[in-house]
């Protein structure tokens, strides 16, 4: 960690999976989990770090899964994008109750509930000390929220992309299925792509690689982990050149 717990980065983007928001439930939003995440983000915000969040929608519906049940893939993807808006509003509510001014920007125009994504406006919010939540993915079907996170991280000039997960880092295989899986503390973008490591999709990894944005993967359920990563402490795994 940097001396005195000072931040090592001035601007970060956190990628939260929708599944993480449902906690131990099988569906929906667990308010206790959202509250815990909001507490973590508030801690980073208090350090003066610009913080943006991309949230998934898998706790409500996943487009690919919906297509397997007979829903048109494009329709399913748009349903998934709308689910991320629900999650984004829940997180915004929790953050503002903790005194963190927050704006939700969506890639699909829903002006009654959130701002449309406008890059310059997002940058202005961050400069003003507001947290920004990016919802509705990229606004396009067939693109994951991982790709949206990599895209938005580049657009706001984030110093690092924080992939908050339910496991303590990047493994050589799924540790829930393979008892021989090994925790990889540091890997390159190319190794992730060539070995097919399941951290983010290839498009997201390539976008971060091409613009030299490191990706930190860590367990978001351990209190203080987001702040530890932001302060430069080695937590979980890192993907970089």
The coarse overall form would be: globular
Number of helices: 9
CATH evolutionary superfamily? Acetylglutamate kinase-like
CATH topology: Carbamate kinase
Number of β-strand runs:
11
Helix coverage percent:
25-40%
Mean pLDDT: 93
Strand content: 15-25%
CATH class wording: Alpha Beta
Total domain count: 1
SS class = alpha/beta
Distance between the termini: 21 Å
Give start-end ranges of low-pLDDT stretches: none
Structure description:
With 241 residues, the chain is α/β, with parallel strands linked by helices. The chain has a single domain (3-240), classed as Carbamate kinase (3-Layer(aba) Sandwich), CATH 3.40.1160. It has nine helices and eleven strands. Helix 6 (145-155) runs parallel beside helix 8 and helix 7 (189-195) packs antiparallel against helix 8. The longest helix is centred in the middle third of the chain and has 25 residues, at 73-97. The mean pLDDT is 93.
């Amino acid at each position: 960690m940097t001396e005195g717990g000072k931040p090592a980065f001035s601007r970060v983007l956190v990628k939260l999976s929708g599944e993480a928001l449902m906690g131990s439930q099988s569906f929906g939003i667990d308010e206790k989990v959202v509250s815990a995440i909001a507490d973590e983000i508030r801690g980073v915000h208090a350090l003066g770090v610009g913080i943006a969040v991309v949230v998934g929608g898998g706790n409500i519906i996943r487009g690919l899964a919906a297509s397997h049940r007979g829903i048109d893939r494009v329709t399913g993807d748009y349903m998934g994008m709308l689910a991320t808006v629900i999650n984004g509003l829940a997180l915004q509510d929790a953050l503002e109750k903790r005194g963190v001014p927050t704006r939700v920007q969506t890639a699909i125009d829903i002006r009654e509930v959130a701002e449309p994504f406008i890059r310059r406006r997002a940058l202005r919010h961050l400069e003003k000390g507001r947290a920004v939540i990016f919802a509705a993915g990229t606004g396009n079907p067939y693109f994951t929220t991982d790709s949206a996170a990599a895209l938005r991280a580049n657009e706001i000039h984030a110093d690092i992309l924080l992939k908050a997960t339910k496991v303590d880092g990047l493994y050589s295989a799924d540790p829930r299925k393979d008892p021989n899986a090994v925790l990889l503390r540091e890997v390159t973008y190319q190794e992730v792509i060539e070995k097919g490591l399941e951290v983010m999709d290839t498009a997201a990894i390539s976008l971060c690689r091409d613009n030299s944005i490191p990706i930190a993967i860590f367990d978001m359920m351990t209190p203080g982990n987001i702040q530890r990563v932001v302060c430069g402490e080695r937590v979980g795994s890192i993907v970089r050149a």
